[in-house]
Amino acid sequence: MSRDGAGVPDVPMRPLVRGGAVALAAVLGALCAAPAQAADAARGSLLYDNNCVVCHTPKVHHREPPLPIDVADLRRIVASWAREQKLGWTDDDVSDVVEYLYQTHYTGRLR
Ligand code: HEC
């Protein structure tokens, strides 16, 4: 199975290699795209810990009544803090943090 010196040019290999790279890119693209669609609370937790606890502990989310009245309102508040802090968060970043805050602090407390 020696490839060198056997007189077999390795040119025919190239389309296969290129096809493999394209297939791999497609698989990676699919893997990367999937989590972006469903909000990721674990990722939201990291974003929150790194950017939001400078001012308040999560305790602020247990005031009665809570500032947000529903999930859309929670999203608006999160987005406005991200804007205020110039974090450059994408819609997905905001969604992940909303998901994290909703699951950990607001479930059953909003309309
Ligand atoms: C500069 C300080 C500061 C930073 C940074 C900050 N917050 Fe706040 N946050 C506050 C204060 C102060 C309040 C209480 C506001 C009020 O009572 O009107 C608050 C309230 C909130 C509330 C409403 C809490 C409730 O249930 O009543 C949410 C949600 C919130 N912040 C999310 C975030 C998120 C997400 C981030 C990070 C992107 C963030 N905050 C960063 C100061 C900050």
Record keyword descriptors for this entry:
mainly alpha; 111 residues; binds heme C
The overall pLDDT average reads 82
Poorly predicted runs of 5 or more residues = 31-36
**N-to-C SSE series?**
HHHH
User: Would you tell me the structural class of the helices and strands?
Assistant: mainly alpha
Bound molecule kinds, no repeats:
heme C
- Specify the number of helices: 4
Distance linking N and C termini: 69 Å
Strand content: under 5%
Q: What best-fitting shape do the alpha-carbon axes yield?
A: globular
Describe this structure in words.
This protein is mainly α and 111 residues long. Helices cover 59% and strands 0% of the residues. The chain has a domain at 39-106. The chain contains four helices and no strands. α2 packs across α4. It is globular. 12% of the residues are buried. Heme C binds at residues 48, 51-52, 54-56, 60-61, 63, 66-68, 74, 77-78, 81-82, 85, 97, 101.
Summarize the structure.
With 111 residues, the protein is mostly helical. It has a domain at 39-106. It has four helices and no strands.
Detail the topology: elements first, then pairings.
Layout (H helix, E strand, L loop, with lengths): L12 H25 L3 H11 L19 H14 L6 H16 L5
The structure holds heme C.
Heme C (HEC) binds next to helix 2, helix 3 and helix 4.
